[in-house]
């Protein structure tokens, strides 16, 4: 599968600071990390802006672990038809409650699937690219309410 890179110029990244994941349970506001994970953030933004995530579901929700979405098949096996490289070096962030991270099936195989942590997951640090963080209590309440099959209405970046 082809590895894809995106425009990570300062002009582009300056516009990619926040995302809103709108779900049937409410909205989650996420601060993005374009300086630490520029290609991952640009990929997420590109997919969101194209409508890729519209009406997909959280296909994997494990209490105390993660809510995972972004699979066009709803099975956990699908993606956008390309992969992106992991951005682990010089990324100081840790997997905490509300952390947005790129799912993959092995190093440098991420694409469209992402997960948000329900609790700290230190065993994932240095393995998955962290590219955002929920910082407000209302968004964390929405996160905590998610169940498998809940719908992502749209993502706005």
TrEMBL record:
GO terms for biological process: protein folding. It catalyses: [protein]-peptidylproline (omega=180) = [protein]-peptidylproline (omega=0). Pfam families: Pro_isomerase. Residues 15-148 form the PPIase cyclophilin-type domain. It comes from the Bacteria. Its EC number is 5.2.1.8. GO terms for molecular function: peptidyl-prolyl cis-trans isomerase activity. CDD domains: cyclophilin (cd00317). PANTHER family: PEPTIDYL-PROLYL CIS-TRANS ISOMERASE-RELATED, PEPTIDYLPROLYL ISOMERASE DOMAIN AND WD REPEAT-CONTAINING PROTEIN 1. Belongs to the cyclophilin-type PPIase family. This is Peptidyl-prolyl cis-trans isomerase.
């Amino acid at each position: 599968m082809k590895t894809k890179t995106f425009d990570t110029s300062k002009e582009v990244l300056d516009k990619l600071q926040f995302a809103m994941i709108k779900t049937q349970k409410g909205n989650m506001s996420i601060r993005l990390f374009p300086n630490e994970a520029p290609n991952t953030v640009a990929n997420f933004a590109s997919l969101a802006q194209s409508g890729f995530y519209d009406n997909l579901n959280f296909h994997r929700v494990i209490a105390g672990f993660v809510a995972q979405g972004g699979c066009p098949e709803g099975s956990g096996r699908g993606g956008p038809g390309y992969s992106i490289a992991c951005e682990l070096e010089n990324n100081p962030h840790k997997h905490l409650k509300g952390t947005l991270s790129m799912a993959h099936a092995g190093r440098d195989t991420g694409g469209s699937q992402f997960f948000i942590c329900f609790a700290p997951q230190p065993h994932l640090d240095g393995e998955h690219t962290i590219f955002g963080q929920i910082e407000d209590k209302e968004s964390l309440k929405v996160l905590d309410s998610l169940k498998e099959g809940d719908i992502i209405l749209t993502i706005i970046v």
